[in-house]
């Protein structure tokens, strides 16, 4: 009897557990309490209402109750008729039938009491240890939560189950199929577009601008610039820039000769004769043009050597001279603080966002093609390389273990709290609708087994008495 009660107590718990597992693990700890509450509310509504399927099950339970009760009435009628026949001298067979029917009634009544005691008080009498499910509902939820936590959310169980599944190899074989890679690529693109659509440009721009400014402001740039300049000078990389500058300067002087001479003449004192100013302007222009031409045509020009020494000294000062480094930092701060620079930094997000969205929407974009190729390559490696499979399995096992060990209490409390929030009377009817039909077979079996046992006992008694 107690074993049967414990078994039936586990059944409704399983039902509650199945409902409780609908909530995402760790939702409470991650600040998603609203999601947990919505899930619990959904489960509560499911337990506090009867669906058409539940109503059909209740009708099936009622039919089975009528069948079991009808069988009890049948054996009772057989018992009465057998007793009447025995009193009227019907013969020895009447005793056998009467004993079998009597034992059948006893078995039927005992099992009726046991089954009824699970859900309510038999005949409305407050008999101890009856109405077990409505009374022990909360305790059942606690026990179910502990059972799930100990047997399903333990580290060893999670690792064994995931290791037996072999997710790495299966996932690799699945990803290696081009159609599946296309599907994953499309889903990732849709998710990326959705995320970029949800994000507000102003918020992202502010974050990006602050991050770049803070990072640039926190790091001294002079030593890095000095090392880069030193390497450029050592490798002669600056000479192309010098060639470009002197060539453009020569061309500009050729095109703007009058402007240069006018500028020189305009700076002469007012008391000098104009023809002298003109000769001086022409002389300055010719010397300047000669100087630039020589620099352009002579790689070993002294001015080029002087420029090399200047850049080398400047690179060294950027790395070691305190005053130079401080000046560079002040210049950097001034540049970063300008509104134009901040606007440029902030507008970078708009350009990047537009580029990413366009690439995500275009099926033939380089981004999607590279993602698809990477997925196919990853799938092939995961399907064939045991080392990669092992790494993927270990990563998944570690992630799953972290979730179940970190959020085990949230998962089990969800089960416990959900079961505790159910209405006892309605929950009892709900559980009875789902398992009551099978329980009525206990009454039928009790009637049949009781009848056979009574017949056997009576037969043995008669044989021993004879």
TrEMBL record:
<dbReference type="Pfam" id="PF04286">
    <property type="entry name" value="DUF445"/>
</dbReference>
<dbReference type="InterPro" id="IPR007383">
    <property type="entry name" value="DUF445"/>
</dbReference>
<keyword id="KW-0812">Transmembrane</keyword>
<protein>
    <submittedName>
        <fullName>Membrane protein</fullName>
    </submittedName>
</protein>
<dbReference type="GO" id="GO:0005886">
    <property type="term" value="C:plasma membrane"/>
</dbReference>
<feature type="transmembrane region" description="Helical">
    <location>
        <begin position="66"/>
        <end position="87"/>
    </location>
</feature>
<keyword id="KW-1133">Transmembrane helix</keyword>
<feature type="compositionally biased region" description="Basic and acidic residues">
    <location>
        <begin position="1"/>
        <end position="11"/>
    </location>
</feature>
<feature type="compositionally biased region" description="Low complexity">
    <location>
        <begin position="21"/>
        <end position="33"/>
    </location>
</feature>
<keyword id="KW-0472">Membrane</keyword>
<feature type="region of interest" description="Disordered">
    <location>
        <begin position="1"/>
        <end position="33"/>
    </location>
</feature>
């Amino acid at each position: 009897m107690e074993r049967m009660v414990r078994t039936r107590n586990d059944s409704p718990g399983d039902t509650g557990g199945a409902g409780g597992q609908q909530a995402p693990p760790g939702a409470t700890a991650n600040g998603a309490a609203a999601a947990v509450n919505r899930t619990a509310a959904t489960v509560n509504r499911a337990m506090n209402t009867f669906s058409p399927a539940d109503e059909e099950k209740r009708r099936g339970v009622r039919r089975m109750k009528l069948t079991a009760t009808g069988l009890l009435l049948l054996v009772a009628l057989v018992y009465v008729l057998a007793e009447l026949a025995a009193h009227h001298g019907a013969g020895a067979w009447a005793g056998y039938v009467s004993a079998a029917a009597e034992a059948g009634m006893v078995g039927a009544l005992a099992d009726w009491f046991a089954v009824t005691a699970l859900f309510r008080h038999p005949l409305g009498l407050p008999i101890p240890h009856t109405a077990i499910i409505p009374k022990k509902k909360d305790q059942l939820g606690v026990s179910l939560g502990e059972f799930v936590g100990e047997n399903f959310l333990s580290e060893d169980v999670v690792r064994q189950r995931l290791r037996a599944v072999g997710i790495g190899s299966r996932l690799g074989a699945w990803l290696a199929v081009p159609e599946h890679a296309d599907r994953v690529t499309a889903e990732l693109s849709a998710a990326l577009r959705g995320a970029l659509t949800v994000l507000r440009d102003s918020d992202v721009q502010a974050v990006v601008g602050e991050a770049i400014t803070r990072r640039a402001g926190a790091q001294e740039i002079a030593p890095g610039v000095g090392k880069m300049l030193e390497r450029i000078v050592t490798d002669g990389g600056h000479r192309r820039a010098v060639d470009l500058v002197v060539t453009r300067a020569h061309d500009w002087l050729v095109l703007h000769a009058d402007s240069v001479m006018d500028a020189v003449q305009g700076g002469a004192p007012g008391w000098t004769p104009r023809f002298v100013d003109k000769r001086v302007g022409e002389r300055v222009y010719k010397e300047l043009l000669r100087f630039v031409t020589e620099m352009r045509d002579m790689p070993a020009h002294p001015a080029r050597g002087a420029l090399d020494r200047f850049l080398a000294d400047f690179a060294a000062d950027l790395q070691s001279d305190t005053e130079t480094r401080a000046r560079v930092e002040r210049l950097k701060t001034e540049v970063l603080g300008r509104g134009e620079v901040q606007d440029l930094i902030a507008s970078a997000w708009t350009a990047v966002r537009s580029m990413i969205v366009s690439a995500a929407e275009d099926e033939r974009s380089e981004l999607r093609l590279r993602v698809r190729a990477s997925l196919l390559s990853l799938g092939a490696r995961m399907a064939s390389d045991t080392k990669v499979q092992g790494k993927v399995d270990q990563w998944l096992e570690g992630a799953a273990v972290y979730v179940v060990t970190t959020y085990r209490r949230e998962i089990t409390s969800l089960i416990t709290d959900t079961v505790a929030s159910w209405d006892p009377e309605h929950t009892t009817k709900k559980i009875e609708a789902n398992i009551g039909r099978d329980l009525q077979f206990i009454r039928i079996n009790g009637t049949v087994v009781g009848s056979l046992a009574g017949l056997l006992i009576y037969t043995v008694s008669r044989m021993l008495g004879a």
